[in-house]
Amino acid sequence: MEALADLSRAYFLHRICVSDIQPCLDWAADRLAGNQDDGDVDIAVLAMAKDADEAVPLIEGILARHGMQPSTNEQWLAGKHIVQLRAAYLRGEETIESLDRNLTIINNVVGHPAWLAMLSRNCEYATDIPDFRPPFEQEFAYIAALWASASAREDFDAAYRREISNTHDIDYHQRIR
Q: Which residue in 29, 88, 109, 120 could disulfide with 47, CB within 3.0 to 4.6 Å?
């Protein structure tokens, strides 16, 4: 199951444009080389795929046969990726503009979950309106901290409070002055 989780993670990173399809092909080649393919012909065909067009249906089929629909784990993977993005931002490796591109893609891939709304919006606004940078950074810190400490999606869901996200907004700070 751990190996399938690796495939699911690699496929998600491909879907959010962080990596190409090669890690998925490497996953299949490694399963074949280690005789861990359990006779699954799709794993052998995936190892020989030339591009994403050939690979994607195979990946989705492999994951589905093992009860791992790609969408099942996407918010978990997105949250954990946001933790990595925040660390890169703090190191100066990401900018507001690059984060805006990343968050837009992630938001679209995972279906616009409520917990991502304020973060994505504040990041988009911060690209043009400097006053949105502090609320963006507050929301980024909040969301990343919750995902960093979550052992499962349910942990995040239990800890997340929309009321807290709502305080990471220029309008909120202007109203309480």
A: 29
